[in-house]
Amino acid sequence: MEYISTRGMSLPTTSAGAIRKGMAPDGGLYVPDSIPVWSGTEPLLASTYQKRAAWLLEQFLTDYTPAEIASCAAAAYGSEKFPEAVAPVRTLTPSMHVLELWHGPTCAFKDMALQLLPHLLRHAVAKGEENQRTLILVATSGDTGKAALEGFRDVPGTEIVVFYPARGVSPMQEWQMVTQEGANVHVVAVEGNFDDAQRGVKALFASRDFNEALLRRGLQSSSANSINWGRLVPQLVYYFSAYTDLVQRNIIKQGDPVDIVVPTGNFGNILAAFYARSMGLPVHKLVCAANANNVLVDFLRTGVYDGNRPFVKTMSPSMDILVSSNVERLLFELNDRDPSPVVSWMESLASKGFYDASSLKSQLTDIFWVDWAGDGETLQTIGQVYREQGYLLDPHTAVAWSVYEKYAAAQGSSCPALLVSTASPFKFNRSVALALLGEDEVQARDEFELLGLLARHTGWPVPTPLRDLKGRSVRHKTVCPPEDMGKTVLSLLDKQAK
User: Fold this and answer.
1) 498 is catalytic
2) Out of 21, 51, 81, 110, which one is annotated catalytic?
3) Per-residue confidence (pLDDT) for residue 131, from 0 to 100
């Protein structure tokens, strides 16, 4: 299997080449030249998550050997990284099944891919002709940063620089990043929002001067964002795994459709569900849940993408995004894999913040159902679900639950719902405690007091990775404007080399 660019102006490459490069040289995103077809759950029923992952990865990473893939999956999803479970499905009601993706070392769903990507990249580099070390560049709206830092910490032959929006992530997310240990890790706050950071990272990938400066330092750039196919493909695994679990527990029969409900900002998580559906996973609707930064709502309803709107800081910060990178792959797939209109749309987005792909409207509305929930609805949902189900939702998952209720009321779907839970509620302890206990109990308490308060009130244990942050010292204090991101990276690398 070869990988081609969504913009059609780069030569095809292998899966290892796509993972090594991150983005295509023409600025597009790599996709496989064909989509494998799924034959059913039988190969997965008696398998561990590691074996399920290896099965899926073998379908897409055809220049990796089965032994390489098996070793990567075993290292990523073993008990050292996921001591309790990898991706368990919790049944709360006969129609609601929650796929928990936050049992890894950083308590967020990004671990599902970013514990695997460093192992895939190590093999990818070994398969290449280049002899440089790898520089991982990451823009994060909160969870990707910590997961990438943890995944690439002290990995030989790599350096990693993570950019996050100053004052644009939760206090716990920021504390996880700025206290990160590791000889090869660097964290930078960007004076702006996530879109500024993401735009800056993409500009660095496209900059000849920056990449020549890296080569002089013996480095080549790659990405750990979901623009990298090696970040996206592991996310397909948990949809097949969850469906198989439901079959195994006799909740559904093989072939029965499910609705998949995903809170999304950069569109990677729900795009993985789209590719799973394209492979043959029985999906009735992909329910896309947005927060007040609801650019995806208008796009999926009309085909018109307009990022020219106020940026809203919400209590679900990982979704505070106005330019969703992975939509480019969706446009490519729905347009019969013709890159010409994709190039035109992406040029319009870059120059005007807008494009009109309304020719795809009927396909979008056939596959997706979309709505959004504001902070007030998010708080109400967290409180309601805890009172009625005894179950804690983080704000992002609460957005998804709220939108699913709107979908069920509007559509009356009889399909079971698989709702994706993207983060531990303790990672957003202030918002969750506010929903359960009110402002008087929350104000004037620091993050670690809130962890204890929430645990005592609910009886839920504080995840070890969050509890162990207390007492750690701040190691990363660099701040820069978006226009200085390249200069800042080179300065950090030069300081590291001394």
Assistant:
1) no
2) 110
3) 64
